[in-house]
Amino acid sequence: MKAHGLAFQFVLVLAAALKMAGGPTAPPQNAPVVVQIPLTGMIEPITAEYVEHGIRHAARIHAQAILLELSTPGGLGTSMRGIIQSILNSPVPVITYVYPSGARAASAGFFILLSADVAVMAPGTNAGAAHPVLLGGGSVGKTEGAKIENDAAAYIRTLAGERGRNVKLAEAGVRKSASYTDSEALKGGLIDAVASSPQAIFQEFNGRTIKRINGKSVTLRLADARIEAYNMTSRQRLLAHLADPNIAFVLAAIGAILLYFEFTHPGMVLPGVVGAMAIVLALFGFYLLPINYVGVILIVLALVLFGLEAHVGSHGWLAAGGIVAMFLGSMVLIKSPWPGTHIHWSISLSVTVPLAVITTLLLRAAILARRRKSISGAEGLLDSTGVARTDVAPLGKIMVRGEIWDARATESIPAGTPVRVRAVEGLMLVVEPRSKAS
């Protein structure tokens, strides 16, 4: 037993020694926390809400710093200002970081980059090109355009000046749409460092004293910092996906088909409910995007052509025109200055062609059903043929479509004579010999 006890103690000592010699270990649980908030894609109300909530979360858990990772082509000015306001009022120091290599902080992202306590870029990134643009590609007068530009220039001068950054280069990013590489931004005094990883940032700025926007000085304690990722909620992820024009376009197409199916087949309920929800979600996505009304007109024209194809039957020519109109309409529907905010041609085709086929088939089925209704009942007996069951002189009985009807004729018709219906008078059919009618 003693030997076994000694062996067990030897194993414990050996394991402890191996653990001590096994290289760096994970940061202890009481290590300083840095909240990581990735800001990717277009800046819009949902991403702004996400960043603002992340900053509040960092303040709530008393994080040492916030690492706001930027990879964005820009976005809405109102959303950008909301994010910047949260950064300026954050009780936790904010580090903006253009990351990873190949990323950019363009347009609104450039403002956000310069607004933070510490601004860093990864190697191979760029920032700038922040001249204000109008959604939808619209134009304004010279005076109004100057107002917008001057407002943006004054805003970025304020941010750069308060953070001790190069005001002239910052303003050039607005007025001249100047863009800077990571080395140019560092040399020009727009950012504080170039770092290849978050850990490199923590190492360089650990123990560094920075001056906050409120005038207070704070010393960053980032040694062995533990990164805590702050992720979007399920609701925010869903709404952020809806801002993708491809998803919004698909939802609009599905909603239109389901609503039409409900209108042509009343009482089914489910297609109408799902279709209405899809349309509402699509409208929310389009609300966040700049819409070109030429695209809307082309899509409406396409639907009209599909309807005409079902009604007229042009051997596919009208449907083909509708496909072309809808494809072109979807291509120009989103008129945005930001890359990645347009409907992809493959998505457009994969939606347009099935939509054309389904719409045409549904319309044709509805038209045929309506025509079939017109030949049913008494009115549908006009020009029908039958046989006189009795003499019709001038009244008698005839059989039409397997049914016995009272009949009246203007001339005597012997029993067994083929007849044709010429008029319907209530429950009385007016007939004549079929040989005479032909």
Report mean pLDDT, rounded to a whole number. Answer: 83
Record field, number of beta strands: 16
Can you list the strand order of the major beta sheet?
8-5-3-2-1-11
Model regions low in confidence, pLDDT < 50 over at least 5 residues: 10-26
- The radius of gyration is 37 Å
- The number of domains is 3
Structural class: alpha/beta
The total of helices stands at 15
CATH homologous superfamily (4th level) name of the largest domain: 2-enoyl-CoA Hydratase, Chain A, domain 1
Please, could you describe this protein's structure?
Helices cover 50% and strands 17% of the residues. The protein folds into 3 domains: 27-235, 2-enoyl-CoA Hydratase, Chain A, domain 1 (Alpha-Beta Complex), CATH 3.90.226.10; 244-374, no CATH class; 379-437, Nucleic acid-binding proteins (OB fold (Dihydrolipoamide Acetyltransferase, E2P), Beta Barrel). The longest helix has 30 residues, at 345-374. It has a 6-stranded parallel sheet with strand order 8-5-3-2-1-11. It has a 5-stranded mixed barrel with strand order 12-13-14-16-15. A 3-stranded mixed sheet has the order 4-6-7. α12 packs parallel to α14 (345-374). The protein has 15 helices and 16 strands. With 438 residues, the protein is α/β, with parallel strands linked by helices.
